[in-house]
Write a structure and sequence with these properties.
- The chain is of the alpha/beta class.
- The protein folds into four domains: about 150 residues, GTPase HflX, N-terminal domain (Rossmann fold, 3-Layer(aba) Sandwich), CATH 3.40.50.11060; about 70 residues, no CATH class; about 160 residues, P-loop containing nucleotide triphosphate hydrolases (Rossmann fold), CATH 3.40.50; about 50 residues, no CATH class.
- About 45% of the residues lie in helices and about 15% in strands.
- It is built from 19 helices and 14 strands.
- A hairpin with a 5-residue loop joins β7 and β8.
- Bound molecules: guanosine-5'-triphosphate and magnesium ion.
- The site of magnesium ion has 5 residues, from α12.
């Protein structure tokens, strides 16, 4: 994982992030409300012992059998212990959540040594899991030789700090983990800029509350080479300098991103005026979206058993069996509790989903709890204004699905299609369903297009279905079915 590693590049998010992470000295003011919460009587019905027990989650630790492999890994990877606080839902839900956290940690390049959940009514305001449990956790961390503790959930800066003081290793939360994966996976300039912006906005909230307890800045170094005049001054605290550096960097990134968004808008407008319908393949991360795109178009898009393998949307041209053109786009996967910073950062990418004519909502039917994924994804759809776009639910990985889970899914989503991107099962039906759902080519036209209107001829090729065509001395004679908008443009060339 690289989130907290200082790579030495001045003023990049990574550097600022790393520097500030070293000094997450922020102790959130302990408010009266916290005190009440901490001392409030428990209302749950579980036995006290059970409620407070740290429960080891079976099968979570990465198997490291070969010694040389262990050595190799410990050089390259961080060794982590996972911790989840379970406030509601069943034990199964808590385990699933921790299994997902394991998958996230491994995607980020960590070796998972141990995973534990604890049941409590609310996370502890000071240390997240409570002081006593934190001590036990320290023992687990020591005995496994872990160097990082990853908490499932979003921790307040003060909680991170206090927990770190007890367990004596670095503590990161789920949001930082997801940001880290995004940082590792972003490829395009825009993607990188968006992730950096998200990391900085995560960091800025962690700076809050530092204020006066910080030592005064010695002047000079912190601004780095790029800082210079105006970035520091005598008597200015480090936090203020940090804030300014961060906000300057954030404004710059925002400006860059907005330029990039403009050029994408232009592309998208073109698509809209061309009236080629857009189909967006969306869904939870690792659902098999890229595999499905490959299966549908032989696109050769990266497929990985990793979360967030795809960050840069890929668009492919496709055709229905009756020859109508449309675009198919692969999108970034969603995840439960997608950090707010990332929803913001990826809003423009996600908004393409809202602009689609059709969403193929891909669901991993082999997952233990696909319904939870379905509803998380729909929440994001609502957030980005995509809830009115027609949606075809595609239950993927049916080759590996538990029949019982499939049965439940069928009951919940009676119109869903069942496919396997691996075996190809159900793919023809899926193609037919897409063709059905796309806007119709409902205009029959017979035209004579002069040779100087080659642009219209190509549009008929691209957007329509040609019944007959003939090159004559005057131009191209065509008989075709086309979308309404194009039919309007062809009117003046009508021929009998
Ligand atoms: N058994 C089975 N596995 C599948 C199927 N489709 C995809 N997978 C596997 O699921 C994993 C994720 O596939 P991807 O296509 O990368 O999933 P994605 O939704 O694009 O994932 P992200 O881009 O990371 O959000 C890979 O290991 C695939 O081989 C399927 O039909 N059956
Ligand atoms: Mg993908």
């Amino acid at each position: 994982m690289n989130t907290f590693v200082d790579r030495g590049s001045l003023d990049s998010a990574e550097e600022i992030f790393a520097e500030a992470a070293d000094r997450t000295a922020a102790v959130r003011p302990y408010t009266a409300e916290d005190a009440v919460e901490a001392g409030s009587p428990d209302q749950g019905e579980l036995e006290l012992a059970e409620r407070h027990a740290l429960r080891r989650v079976e099968g979570l630790s990465t198997e490291l059998t070969d010694v040389s492999e262990v050595e190799q890994r410990s050089l390259r990877l961080e060794r982590v212990v996972l911790m989840g606080v379970w406030t509601s839902g069943t034990q199964q839900d808590a385990d699933n959540s921790l299994i997902e956290l394991k998958h996230l940690a491994e995607t980020a390049g960590a070796a998972v040594l141990e995973g534990m959940t604890q049941r409590r009514r609310k996370p502890d305001p000071a240390t997240y899991i409570g002081r006593g449990k934190a001590e036990e956790l320290r023992e687990a961390v020591e005995s496994t030789g872990a160097d990082t503790l990853v908490c499932d959930g979003e921790l307040a800066p003060g909680q991170l700090r206090q927990l770190e003081d007890i367990v004596k290793v670095k503590v990161i939360d789920r949001t930082a983990l997801i940001l880290d994966i995004f940082a590792q996976h972003a490829r395009s300039r825009e993607g990188k800029a968006q992730v950096e912006l998200a990391q900085l906005s995560y960091l800025v909230t962690r700076l809050r509350g530092w204020g006066t307890t910080l030592s005064r800045q010695a002047g000079g170094r912190a601004g780095g080479g790029n800082g210079g005049v105006g970035l520091r001054g005598p008597g200015e605290t480090k936090i203020e300098t940090d804030r300014r550096r961060i906000s300057a960097r954030m404004s710059k990134l925002r400006r860059q991103i907005s330029h990039m968004a403009t050029s994408r808008d232009v592309k998208r407008d073109k698509r809209q005026t061309r009236q080629v319908p857009a189909v967006s393949i969306s869904g939870y991360t690792n659902a098999g979206k890229s595999s499905l795109l490959n299966r549908l178009t032989n696109a050769g898009v990266l497929v990985h058993d990793e979360l967030f393998a795809t960050l840069d949307p890929t668009v492919r041209q496709a055709r229905t069996p009756d020859g109508r053109a449309f675009t198919l786009s692969d999108t970034v996967g969603f995840v439960r509790h997608l950090p707010h910073e990332l929803v913001e950062a990826f809003r423009s990418t996600l908004e393409e989903v809202a602009d689609a004519d059709l969403i193929l909502h891909v669901v991993d039917a082999s997952h233990p709890d696909p319904e939870q994924q379905l509803s998380s994804v729909r929440e994001v759809f609502a957030e980005i204004g995509a809830e009115d776009v027609p949606e075809v639910v595609v239950l993927n990985k049916t080759d590996a699905a538990d029949p019982l889970v499939l049965k439940q899914l069928r009951a919940k989503e009676p119109h869903a299609l069942e496919v396997s991107a691996h075996t190809g099962a159900g793919i023809e039906e899926l193609i037919a369903a897409v063709a059905d759902a796309l806007p119709d080519l409902d205009r029959e036209v017979r035209v004579m297009l002069p040779y100087d209107r080659g642009d219209l001829v190509s549009r008929v090729y691209e957007e329509g279905r040609i019944v007959e065509k003939e090159h004559t001395g005057e131009g191209t004679r065509m008989h075709a079915y086309v979308p309404r908008l194009l039919a309007g443009k062809l009117d003046e060339y009508a021929a009998v």
